[in-house]
Design brief:
single chain; 18% strand
Length: 413
């Protein structure tokens, strides 16, 4: 049977275009693709880098790129995009694709916003203490944010739950006097003629509260708040590794074990997770992240949602549509093609045969040597230094050109 009453919503990252801020912080021309293309595998069988297929290395400033995303998503049953929205006391980042979408009636896809209210830091280079732009929560920010979001909330395409506009907050526990903020948002929207809000708290960074903070609902955000065993001891890494390798089937079972009959929590599925492109040896990596195992997780999440939620509130989220640097994307890549999208469509059409997770691939115990460990330490420190060095040399274009020519000549010799 088909599942017409279940609405599948995919989180969407708008960082696939250059901005002045990213130029200054990470080097001229930086976009999310910069991280994606330099990723390297960390152990035998590790799938990196993830490279795009059909849509290519798109630029979200182009209407053609945004339309192609929408056409592909709708073809496979994605109901809406949930755009990450970056707002810092009146300063917006990565907003151009969203503003262009808002002004483009041909971008005919339901959407909602997730306020990504966290500091931007250099944590990709292991320097989280270095803040690039801070969330300050100034006295006027509660009204400032909702006024800024007002044009989106008024749009005919904006996603509504039982008539109320769905607005999400990524780190609700960070907002001082959160309930007061949400009350101001509700009052403003009623007075402005927008109507009611359906406010949703993301369950991230250890947060499990939503009612206490004043929200109507919550949403899972894998791999946040996860408890799962590490596979590190069974893997022979090519670099010193301080992250975690996890089994996607085990991760899925953890989230599926939660019952939400008495809680208004929306389920979220990931097709995989691997943020090696951003954090290298500190990455969280899910293995056995196959289209079949994703389909089994999605099928179970949809079935649970049909049982737990009443009609009109049956939302299931996917993290994510295009988080390429975190290895979680429904968009086609060069290895799997449309396989994740096809698995999505089969679940929504009631044709999925993914009743159970496929067995894990056996992994031989690693063989370690003194020389191998020393080589790994050397590669690790080179990798740690390469990020800051790249940022420094980007400030000196002439020196960068000379260094590139020297390295090119050395590589040929």
């Amino acid at each position: 049977m088909t599942r017409p009453d279940v609405q599948l919503i995919a989180f969407h990252l708008p960082q696939f275009h250059p901005t002045p801020e990213n130029d200054a912080w990470w080097g001229k021309g930086f976009t999310e693709w910069t991280n994606v293309t330099r990723a390297q595998p960390l152990f035998a069988g590790h799938y990196q880098p993830h490279l795009p297929a059909d849509l290519g290395f798109y630029d979200l400033r182009l209407a053609e790129a945004r339309h192609a995303q929408i056409d592909l998503a709708r073809r496979y049953g994605i109901h809406a995009f949930c755009y990450h929205y970056y707002w810092f006391s009146g300063t917006r980042l990565l907003h151009r694709p969203l503003m262009d979408m808002l002004a483009d009636p041909a971008a005919d896809m339901p959407f909602c916003l997730n306020w990504a209210n966290e500091n931007w830091t250099r944590r990709w280079n292991a320097a989280e203490h270095e803040v690039l732009i801070e969330q300050r929560y100034e006295p006027d920010d509660a009204l400032g944010f909702i006024r800024d979001a007002e044009p989106f909330l008024r749009d005919r395409r904006y996603l509504r739950v039982q008539g109320a506009s769905l607005l999400m907050v990524y780190r609700p526990q960070q907002i001082p006097e959160c309930a007061r903020w949400l009350d101001l948002w509700r009052q403003h929207c009623r007075a402005a003629g927008i109507g009611e809000l359906h406010l949703c708290a993301a369950l991230t960074h250890g947060n499990s509260a939503y009612r206490e903070l004043g929200f109507d609902s919550a949403v899972e955000f894998p791999p946040h708040n996860l408890k799962a065993g590490s596979l590190n001891s069974s893997i022979d890494f090519t670099l010193p590794f301080s992250g975690n390798v996890l089994s996607l089937p085990e991760v899925a079972r953890f989230y599926l074990s939660r019952g939400y009959e008495d809680d208004r929590v929306y389920r979220t599925v990931v097709p995989g997770w691997d943020n090696t492109a951003r954090t290298v040896g500190r990455a969280t990596i899910m293995v056995d992240a196959t289209p079949r195992n994703y389909g089994a997780w999605l099928r179970a999440a949809v079935d649970a949602t049909l049982h737990e939620r009443k009609p009109g509130e049956r939302l299931v989220f996917v993290n994510a549509w295009n988080e390429w640097a975190e290895g979680c994307h429904l968009e086609p890549d060069r290895l799997h093609g449309h396989a994740y999208l096809e698995a999505t469509d089969r679940v929504l059409q009631g044709r999925s045969e993914a009743f159970a997770f496929a067995p894990s691939t056996p992994r031989p115990a690693p063989r370690r040597t003194v020389l191998g460990d020393l080589a790994g330490v050397f590669r690790y420190h080179v990798a740690r230094r390469s990020g800051p060095l790249r940022l420094w040399i980007n400030r000196f274009p002439k020196l960068k050109s000379v260094a590139a020519a020297v390295l090119k000549r050395v590589s040929r010799s």
